[in-house]
From TrEMBL:
Top-level taxonomic group: Bacteria
Any one GO molecular function term: anti-sigma factor antagonist activity
Organism: Mycolicibacterium vaccae ATCC 25954
Alphabetized Gene3D superfamilies for the sequence: STAS domain
PANTHER family found in the cross-reference section: ANTI-SIGMA FACTOR ANTAGONIST TM_1081-RELATED (PTHR33495:SF2), ANTI-SIGMA FACTOR ANTAGONIST TM_1081-RELATED-RELATED (PTHR33495)
Name of the protein in question: Anti-sigma factor antagonist
Length: 120
């Protein structure tokens, strides 16, 4: 069985979802459900911001990209800013190859994502 670990915490600046392991067609439903729940939590958070931290993802396929895009679109439609943290090639490469870096705009660290005023 493929390993996917997801954790969530709320900080002053945002709701943060930490993802580690493989995100593919076999695990993406867990990620999508976690992002949906985190978006609902971010709606109630004063910052209305959600950070998805993917630096520990060991595989990130098109299913993961679609889940992130859904989260950005859903969040944006509900007034939640979604920021992606990824400095690892397993995540940044698929984002760049599909030319989604303008939409997903990966930050290297959670601190960088929290410090950004982009999208607010």
């Amino acid at each position: 069985m493929k390993s996917l670990n997801i954790a969530q915490e709320a900080r002053d600046g945002a709701v943060i979802v930490y993802v580690s392991g493989e995100v593919d067609t076999g695990t993406v439903q867990r990620l999508a459900a976690a992002l949906q729940a985190a978006t609902a939590d971010a709606l109630a958070h004063p910052s209305r911001a959600l950070v998805v931290e993917l630096n520990e993802a060991t595989y990130f396929g098109s299913a993961g990209l679609n889940a992130l895009l859904d989260s950005v679109e859903t969040g944006g439609g509900r007034g939640v800013t979604v920021r992606v943290v990824a400095a690892n090639a397993e995540v940044t490469r698929p984002i760049e190859v599909t030319k989604l870096d303008d939409v997903l705009r990966p930050y290297p660290t959670v601190a960088d994502a929290l410090a950004s005023s982009e999208g607010l």
